[in-house]
């Protein structure tokens, strides 16, 4: 592919956020969009994620983004002309104590006020939704039927293929080495393959976004946190049709339509980590959780384990918007839920850059909120 | 000779996930010319055998179509466990 020395916008990062942003910018009529990726498309956090999509959040902003993303996911196959593997089996949230129950109940009230039809359900109903569930020690359950999951690979590639058709150029194996800034205005990006001049640069580098930001002299509180995950061999459907999730129980489990069961948990102590290593401890602990919750999984085989990074921020909400360097934008820090929010994240930033009023006002996601102490921590994160 | 010889839509490169040579060639032509990307878009090599049966064929096909030497084609990341293990066994710390 022929190299480009100039572009109207350069996007850094070939994960779902970068690719969806490229697609919506092209849809808004922007031309000469170049996306650069240091490895391969979908090779970082997106391709390693648990693939869940949900609107059951604890902060108003995450709820608004979550339900708007679901609205887009529900018609994405038609829009992009390729299946994204959407499967809406719902999210079943399990509370194990009164305090957690109260947090989730407050979340439900907030969600309901924003048009998200989540509800409190009984153990009996939880067992109807998730047959074979063993949760006698649970305090209560919440459910939202429109939640579920989509295939992160297919979603990213569907956005990419649709973006390419609209003229977006994508350079893989192209590492960003610098951000060109003159008089506090962004002028382009430097890469291992050469410089691309551009009046707008968007940092969608996930857990690496902090390093890209620093190239322009911008400090963002953003770090990588390694999370482990595993998947089983495919088995007959019905083992765990919903996403079974608990924040205090520290697990998420779901069977994909393909038959494999995918599940993960948070690492102890939430260490900052950029190593994609896997541990035997995780395999054992996750397996114990599975056998306890869904005893009939004990005969199913684990096919593969891996890890990926949550691109964290102090409040577990994203950083979206312009920086102190003019026309240098960020869309990052999705804190483990970038895949599920990507459709709306790409859309609202593209609307803003096209001079329109975005569907959701994201001004509160400005990165300076942390310095101002205005951030509210999201509670609903595994 | 059987009718299937030379018919790419009937040649299964990945038997676990039922991926044909035709699908692989189609996506390489679209620019998905790494094992990691083909794995993600087609699930080739993601079944219970973890690519033991198909990865060499896949790498050879990439080399052939891109004009690279096979030594320049990166294999997929090896992910544990080495072979599928029952959850019940893992939960008991590896002792049955």
Brief sketch in words of this structure:
The complex is a heterodimer of chains A (382) and B (96). With 382 residues, chain A is an alpha/beta fold.
Secondary-structure blueprint:
The complex is a heterodimer of chains A (382) and B (96).
Chain A: E1 9-12, H1 16-27, E2 33-36, H2 45-48, E3 52-53, H3 60-73, H4 76-80, E4 91-95, H5 98-113, E5 119-121, H6 123-129, E6 140-144, E7 148-149, H7 152-165, E8 169-171, E9 176-182, E10 185-191, E11 194-197, E12 201-203, H8 209-215, E13 223-232, E14 243-246, E15 251-255, E16 261-265, H9 280-293, E17 301-312, E18 319-322, E19 328-332, H10 338-353, H11 369-372
Parallel strand pairs in A: 1-2, 1-12, 2-8, 4-14, 12-19
Antiparallel strand pairs in A: 3-7, 4-6, 5-6, 9-10, 10-11, 13-16, 13-17, 14-15, 15-16, 18-19
Chain B: E1 12-14, E2 19-20, H1 21-29, H2 35-42, H3 55-66, E3 85-86, H4 87-91
Antiparallel strand pairs in B: 1-2
Helix pairs in contact in B: 1-3
Specify the number of helices of chain B. 4
Q: How would the global form of chain A be characterised?
A: globular
Distance between the termini of chain A: 41 Å
- Report the sheet-strand fraction of chain B: 5-15%
Count of discrete structural domains of chain A: 2
Helix content of chain B: 25-40%
What is the N-to-C succession of helices and strands of chain B?
Answer: EEHHHEH
**If you compute it from the alpha carbons, what radius of gyration of chain A comes out, rounded to the nearest whole angstrom?**
20 Å
So, the CATH homologous superfamily of chain B? Answer: BFD-like [2Fe-2S]-binding domain
> In CATH, what is the class of chain B?
Mainly Alpha
Q: How helix-rich are the residues of chain A, as a percent range? A: 25-40%
* Largest sheet descriptor of chain B: 2 strands, antiparallel
Strand order of the biggest β-sheet of chain A: 5-6-4-14-15-16-13-17
Count of distinct strands of chain A: 19
Would you state the CATH class of the largest domain in chain A? Answer: Alpha Beta
């Amino acid at each position: 592919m022929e190299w480009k020395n100039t572009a109207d916008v350069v996007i850094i990062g070939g994960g779902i956020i970068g690719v969806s942003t490229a697609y919506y910018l092209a849809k808004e009529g922007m031309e000469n969009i170049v996306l650069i990726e240091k490895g391969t498309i979908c090779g970082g956090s997106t391709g390693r994620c648990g693939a869940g999509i949900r609107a059951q959040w604890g902060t108003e902003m995450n709820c608004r983004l979550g339900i708007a993303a679901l609205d887009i996911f529900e018609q994405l196959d038609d829009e992009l002309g390729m299946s994204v593997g959407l499967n809406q089996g719902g999210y079943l949230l399990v509370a194990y104590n009164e305090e957690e129950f109260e947090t989730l109940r407050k979340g439900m009230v907030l969600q309901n006020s924003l048009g998200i039809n989540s509800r409190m359900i009984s153990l009996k109903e939880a067992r109807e939704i998730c047959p074979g569930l063993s949760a006698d020690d649970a305090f209560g359950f919440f459910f939202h039927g429109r939640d579920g999951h989509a295939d992160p690979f297919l979603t990213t590639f569907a956005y990419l293929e649709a973006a390419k058709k609209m003229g977006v150029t994508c350079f893989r194996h192209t590492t960003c080495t610098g951000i060109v800034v003159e008089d506090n205005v962004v002028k382009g990006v430097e890469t291992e393959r050469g410089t691309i001049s551009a009046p707008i640069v968007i940092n969608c580098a996930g857990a690496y976004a902090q390093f890209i930001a620093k190239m322009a002299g911008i400090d963002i509180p953003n770090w990588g946190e390694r999370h482990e995950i595993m998947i089983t061999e495919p088995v007959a459907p019905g083992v765990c049709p919903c996403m079974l999730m608990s924040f205090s129980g520290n697990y998420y489990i779901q069977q994909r339509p393909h038959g494999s069961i995918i599940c993960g948990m948070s690492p102890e102590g939430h260490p900052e980590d950029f190593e994609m290593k896997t541990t035997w401890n995780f395999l054992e602990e996750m397996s114990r959780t599975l056998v306890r919750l869904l005893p009939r999984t004990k005969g199913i085989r684990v096919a593969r384990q891996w890890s990926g990074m949550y691109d964290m921020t102090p409040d577990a909400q994203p950083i979206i918007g312009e920086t102190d360097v003019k026309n240098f934008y960020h869309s990052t820090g999705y804190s483990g839920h970038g895949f599920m929010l990507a459709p709306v994240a790409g859309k609202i930033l593209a609307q803003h850059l096209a001079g329109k009023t975005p569907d959701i006002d994201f001004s509160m996601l400005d990165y300076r909120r942390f310095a101002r102490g205005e951030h509210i921590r999201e509670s609903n994160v595994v | 000779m059987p009718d299937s010889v030379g018919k790419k839509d009937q040649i299964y490169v990945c038997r676990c996930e039922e991926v044909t040579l035709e699908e692989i060639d189609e996506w390489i032509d679209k620019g998905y010319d790494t094992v990691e990307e083909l794995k993600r878009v087609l699930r080739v090599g993601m079944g219970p055998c973890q690519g033991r049966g198909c990865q060499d064929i896949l790498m050879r096909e990439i080399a052939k179509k891109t004009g690279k030497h096979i030594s320049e084609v990166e294999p997929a990341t090896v992910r544990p466990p080495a072979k599928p293990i029952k959850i019940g066994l893992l939960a008991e710390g590896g002792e049955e």
